[in-house]
Write a structure and sequence with these properties.
about 25% strand; alpha/beta; binds S-adenosylmethionine; single chain; about 300 residues; Rossmann fold
């Protein structure tokens, strides 16, 4: 497995984020093995409409995507997670040359690569552990030929709009001339639907968010008391995003990396953004990132969008 940019900066990122005002932690650290397991549980929750809606749209779009791509494309999936969405594309494409899942969560990547290799015998599967917030090279063994990027799950919404443009530019550079990209993006909708999707009745999303503090305890020697923080999902109507926070239930001091970090009662750590997009806004971001849109699909309820983009 290519280990292009395996990040080692959990402690450094946490110290910087917790020294900032307001306090933050980067969402890429949510996905250790436990975070990945919890995220898979989230995708099956009744309140969490994005996964099942995207999986409704993709089969309807896949024949048109395959026709636009032609034979022999290599599929590069950014943030592949469990790799469960790519099968529908790989099955529709004409003789895909390879599948390159890219993820920061190494254990999850191994499992996804093994699963796709078993489902698509004969397909070259070349996993890459990398942080896609930075440039990373594709594996040298990747056959020459056209590339199709795949960025599902509205992971693009975890970036600020400026970061999303930066990602799109980088993806264009990584994928090369003539690339296409299938992008899944969540749409703006009623705040109650959005807040429920990020704060479910069973508390799985709360456990996913709190696992970030547990991870800092496990891997960075912190002493967060998990019961002293609570999960909160807030719709920000100005920036059109759901924000996940961990809110201190009481004033407290936490030790991390030899430093003492004070929390006031009610003070929050902002852990994740999930921006929701109106189609015109997403089109603007794609264009600013060097892509033009060839097609857009949505579900009948207008919950989610799937885009086919072409490098401009
Ligand atoms: C919201 S999940 C989506 C998973 C899957 N693609 C889906 O659609 O269900 C985000 C995925 O991106 C990965 N990820 C998050 N930040 C990353 C980063 N900076 N670099 C690489 N992978 C990242 C996570 O490990 C996780 O697999």
């Amino acid at each position: 497995m290519l280990d292009a940019a395996m990040p080692s900066g959990l402690l450094a990122d946490a110290l910087a984020g917790l020294a900032a005002s307001p306090k933050t932690l980067p969402c890429k650290w949510l996905y250790d093995a436990e975070g990945a397991r919890l995220f898979e549980d989230i995708t099956r929750l009744p309140e969490y409409y994005p996964t099942r809606t995207e999986m409704l749209i993709l089969p309807q779009a896949s024949a048109a995507i395959a026709a636009a791509c032609g034979p022999g494309v290599a599929v590069v999936e950014f943030g592949s997670g469990d790799g469960s969405k790519v099968s529908v594309l790989l099955s529709a494409l004409e003789s895909p040359s390879a599948y390159v899942p890219v993820d920061i969560a190494a254990e999850w990547l191994d499992a996804a690569a093994a699963r796709v290799a078993a489902e698509q015998p004969g397909l070259a599967v070349l996993p890459v552990v990398a942080d896609f917030t930075q440039y990373f090279p594709l594996p040298a063994e990747l056959p020459a030929g056209p590339r199709l990027g795949f960025f599902p799950g509205s992971t693009i919404g975890n970036f600020t709009p400026d970061e999303a443009v930066g990602f799109l530019r980088r993806a264009r550079e990584v994928l090369g001339h003539g690339a296409r990209m299938v992008l899944g993006a969540d749409l703006v909708k009623a705040p109650a639907v959005l807040e429920a999707a990020y704060d479910d009745a069973q508390g799985v999303t709360a456990a996913f968010n709190l696992n970030l503090l547990a991870r800092l305890n496990r891997e960075a020697g912190a002493d967060f008391e998990l019961a002293s923080f609570r999960h909160e999902a807030r719709w920000n109507p100005v920036l059109e995003r759901v924000e996940m926070h961990l809110v201190a239930r009481r004033a407290q001091v936490v030790t991390l990396g030899g430093q003492r970090i004070g929390f006031a009662e009610g003070e929050s750590i902002h852990t994740e953004n999930s921006h929701k997009y109106r189609p015109d806004r997403l089109r603007q971001l794609a264009e600013a990132g060097g892509w033009r849109d060839l097609a857009l699909w949505t579900d009948p309820a207008g919950l989610f969008s799937v885009w086919l983009l072409e490098a401009a």
